[in-house]
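Q: Sequence in, structure out?
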Amino acid sequence: MPITLGDLRRFAAAHTLVEPTTLRRAIDRLGFVQADPIRAPARAQDLVLRHRAIGYRAGDLERRYARLGVEEDYFVNYGFVTRALQGLMHPRRVSGRAPWSASRRKHARALLDFVRERGIVHPREVDARFSHGKVENYWGGQSNATTQLLDALHYRGLLRVVRRAGGVRMYEAREHGPAPSGAAERRARLDALVDAVVAIYAPLPAPSLPYYVRRLRQAAPQWRGELTDALRRCRERLSHARVEGVDWYWPSAEDAAGREPRDVVRLLAPFDPVVHDRPRFELLWGWTYRFEAYTPPARRKLGYYALPMLWRDRVIGWGNLAVEDGELRSEIGYVASRPPRDRAFARELDAELHRVRAFLGLEAP
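A: Exactly. Output:
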């Protein structure tokens, strides 16, 4: 039987929303969880993991970070990666940027020596030791120069995040294994990174596949010139179907057909793998979702941090959630301007809001 758009919808909804398991196994299944600092009503990484880890509570990832075998790092975005996935990206060599000045290299060496001597450091300790002053950051504001240098050394893999203290990253020195010894090993690593991307965001329409592959220039800038060849190779090994005029790709080991949707409502993070790819979202669910946290309030259509609402295999609306005076406040919007008439939907929406309250610690699970 040919693959249909309905098959792809069901595949997209069920692909990473599998039966919940332990937190460690949930992270291992995903490989990467995108991070975001906004709490509305919780951080994105927590909102992603609550669907996939049994009994997950907001903040569990940060509280249990040191015991989970995960690392904060860049992949297609910044977030949490398994050590196996991180090992494919490092040692990371930064290319395509202006080389550091002699002064900056001197500061970096001194900072690394200080971290090695102290073991674990807070950015305040580093700033107090070196006091490099202020620099303009990516957003146009002012940041401590030492904080930016810590970020740069972390990105290069010379530092790792040990834990967070009050949300602030605590660092220790880190050394990675050797770089690939030859072209074959380099291609194998890059192919494994591509496969990891596809496994997270599948099924991918043809325009989205190169977008995600090219995002790997953040993960492995040393191989950015090889991404075109890696894209060609992945097209050859992935499963593929043309559906309603669009080519779609997914891991060859998975069957895109034959999945039955469950009677479950899920309020998803804006960065959840199910909704992350906005062009795919429109192809599968027929409407435009936009993340509006940075949109001026007068121009918002869905809300500050609207959570796409999945019902069975359809994203039929969104929810804006907030905690006020210890109570969960919810505003639900619908694409069709009204909720489904199915009694099961009302029951399951109530069940989802109950799960959110338990996740936030507002009531017993």
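Residues 92 and 156 are 6 Å apart (CA to CA).
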